[in-house]
Amino acid sequence: MTSYGFWDSPLSATEVVAAATTIDMLSAVRAGSGRVIWAESRPQEGGRITLIEPNADGEEREVLPEGYSARSAVHEYGGAAFSIIDGSIYFVNWEDQRIYRLDGSVTAVTEEPPSPRSWRYSVITGSVDQLFAIRERHEADTVLNEIVAICDGEMSVVAGGSDFYDAATPSPSGERLAWIEWDHPNMPWDETRLVVANKDGSDAVVVASGAAVQQPSWVDDDTLVYLDDRSGYWNLYRHELSSGTDTPLYEIDHDMGYAPFLLGTSTYAVVDENRIAAVVIRDGMDELGVIEDGQFQACAPGLSFVRGLVADGGIVYFVGASFTQGMAIYRLEEDNELQLVSTPKPVPLDEDYIAVGEHHSFDSGD
Predict the structure, then answer these.
(1) 165 and 155 in contact (C-beta within 8 Å)?
(2) pLDDT the model gives residue 68
(3) pLDDT for position 92
(4) Sign of the dihedral through C-alpha 136, 137, 140, 143
């Protein structure tokens, strides 16, 4: 019998490091204009985060040039460091925290800040004609968070005054903007506000508050979907701006979202006005399904981890994994069939070595 800690390990240090090359959950996956791109963490390159896109044959290729790393430092945790807008890639570069456009060549979109990395950006949305982003300004004795608009090289403040912002989301016409804001001492899982305004920030109205609201998405110019934990669980609600009415879309005594430590968290995606792909968290595992007519149909029974949902043209892309298979990019077709987009990251262990978790519940007091 070998003494504890002295047996031969089936894992080498080299294999452990190699397995750490994986999809980066700070930014995860983005889709738009028929393109799907995901972030990949490279520990062997000093933790650099690059961007990967499959070609027409499905072969994965790196699209971010060497020397750039797509990672935001807003709120220190970061998140949502790149987007696909009108077919072009916009990303935040880790070294200087400026926004760049990647379209054949790399072009700086934001100017150099007053001091290195003192202006930081995240959650880049909008159109080529008018971008929106979260900006965090580090001044001499304070830190200010704002939503800014970038148009023809000029930057203007759309929203300011709150301590934190997330999820700046333009309406389909681009005429309105929704966002999440909150203030100290609250964390974003304590209490936030969902605000809607004109695209210049005027006529701002709070449409949901008093709970931890997150992840707003537009169905059309008059309709928003969002997560709200007023019931004690993060469930989906639909808000009509013209009437001011809220309607539960799917009520369940389980969460459909996680505490949003990172900016740009996404656990559901609006496919069209009648169909939403969403995650329900049951017994500590993610269950992907489609909500139609108030009913939830499970679509990925083999997966236990589902994050980063994004819809493009009726197709939903997301990051998925299981107990025995590493993270990969999947696509959910319009007929609810599941397809692999990327090669699952290898797990350098025989399955016999992997302990599959089992859920256990225990009664307790209040």
Answers:
(1) no
(2) 97
(3) 97
(4) negative
Residue 212 burial (CB count, 10 A) = 21
Q: Token digits for 359?
A: 């859920």
Higher-scoring residue by pLDDT: 347, 224: 224
Q: What is the torsion angle, in degrees rounded to the nearest 10, for the CA atoms of residue 273, residue 279, residue 281 and residue 282?
A: 90
User: pTM of whole model > 0.70?
Assistant: yes
Three-state helix/strand/coil letters over the chain: CCCCCCCCCCCCHHHHHHHCCEECCCCCEEEECCEEEEEEEEHHHCCEEEEEEECCCCCEEECCCCCCCECCCCCCCCCCCEEEECCEEEEEECCCCCEEEEECEEEECCCCCCCCCCEEEEEEEECCCCEEEEEEEECCCCEEEEEEEEECCEEEEEECCCCEEEEEEECCCCCEEEEEEECCCCCCCCCEEEEEEECCCCCCEEEEEEECCEEEEEEECCEEEEEECCCCCCEEEEEECCCCEEEEEECCCCCCCCCCCCCCCCCEEEEECCEEEEEEEECCEEEEEEEECCEEEECCCCCCEEEEEEEECCEEEEEEECCCCCCEEEEECCCCCEEECCCCCCCCCCHHHCCCCCCCCCCCCC
Q: What is the pLDDT of residue 26?
A: 62
